[in-house]
Amino acid sequence: MHSAIGGHGHIRNAKRSTSGPVGSAFTLVELLVVIAIIGVLVALLLPAVQAAREAARRSQCANNLRQLGLDMLNHETAKGRFARNEQEVFILGQPSPTFGQRDRASHLVMVTPYVEAAGIYNQLNLSLNANPLPADQKVGGTYLRELALAVLTCPSDDRTGVHDPHSGFQTSWETLITWGGGPVATTSYAGSMGAQLMGWGSCNVKTLLGLPNDGFHAQKTIYPGDDWFNTTSVADGCGHDANYGNQRGDCPNSDTVSGVFSRSNWAAKLKEITDGTANTIMMGEIRSSATAFAWVDGWVRSEAMWFATTAPLNFETDPFVLGYSPGQTPPVCYDWGKDFNTASGFKSKHPGGVTFVFCDGSTHFLSDSIDYGTYQQLGARSDGEAPNPY
């Protein structure tokens, strides 16, 4: 047997001593408290982070519009007027309404030489009888209608870029897709027709907004509520009398277009902006997903680019956002394919308002709460009314 007594008479321990400093550790309760504190901090910081990101996106959007405004001003200097939609819905000067050629290049295509996209413009055949039409011509091997330009894209809008025009909510205007399908690229910006008679649907904007009848504004009986200054519900110069008026700027007659662009082949000269360039909207933000024509035709075809201040600012008509099912008929004023006086207006994904560039090249963020009459004053180029503060 081995002795338990050491050679020097010391007793050997059966176990080695484990004495020493005891390590500390979180209890489960303490760990849960720490996790809860971190969650609260994240919840507090997240809105600030999101707000900072949106501020950056909104700044980029304003920069895009500022650039487009300067490009339009350069076009006016070189060509004598802003870039226009190259189409004739109706031909000016005809004794009876006569259709012209449609679906040619939009004002956004015509300004491309000034947006550092001359390489696109120089490859296009923009002649009156061009075949195929500009949208169906190829630039660098890609159809023009499929080219998405960064300067035409607001980063706050998540429904921009290239999409299938057949996708999502069905619209009767899909019959306009004459190129056999294929994707189209959208735009976040378009020129303004001002306080224009828009027509088509049965929506009354004055009734929608609960505006009182002041005995002067929007007094015409054709599409009541449109045409704030009563200047576009008149004989249009293309064979229509006052019972039809210049709906949507279909006639390229400067006397019956309220703003600085028309749906047809007219755009303003600076000298025609008698209210002052600093008091008149040139272009603004749009959401193509909120109006059927822009969704189907994209930024290239002139048929899509007609927007007016007639529509209340940021009035929602996107069927996806409103939650309508394919085939469902939206209520009056909310139909993206028929209520042009609410759908074909200026809208953004920025909280609280929409960014515009005015005819002097300055950018402005107009609040959703802007007085409707003031908004119309800013849209019209020659209404003669000094705009109220905004």
Notes on the protein architecture:
There is one protein chain. This protein is of the alpha+beta class and 390 residues long. The protein has one domain. It is built from eight helices and eight strands, in the order H-H-H-E-E-E-E-E-H-E-H-H-H-E-E-H. It has a four-stranded antiparallel β-sheet with strand order 5-6-7-8, covered by helices on one side. The N and C termini lie far apart (105 Å). The model is unreliable at 1-21 (pLDDT under 50).
Task: Give the end-to-end Cα distance, rounded to a whole number of Å.
Answer: 105 Å
Mean pLDDT: 90
Could you spell the SSE succession in H and E letters?
A: HHHEEEEEHEHHHEEH
Radius of gyration: 30 Å
Strand content: 5-15%
**Main beta-sheet strand count, sense and barrel state:** 4 strands, antiparallel
Number of helices: 8
Overall body shape: globular
Strands of the widest sheet, in order across it, are 5-6-7-8
Explain briefly what this protein structure is.
It is built from 8 helices and 8 strands, in the order αααβββββαβαααββα. The chain has 390 residues and is an alpha+beta fold.
Task: List the SSEs and their pairings.
Blueprint: H1 28-79, H2 107-110, H3 118-121, E1 138-139, E2 142-143, E3 162-163, E4 184-185, E5 189-191, H4 205-209, E6 281-285, H5 292-297, H6 319-322, H7 340-343, E7 353-358, E8 363-367, H8 372-379
Antiparallel strand pairs: 1-2, 3-4, 5-6, 6-7, 7-8
Which features characterize this protein?
390 residues, alpha+beta, four-stranded antiparallel sheet, two-stranded antiparallel ribbon, 8 helices, 22% helix, disordered N terminus
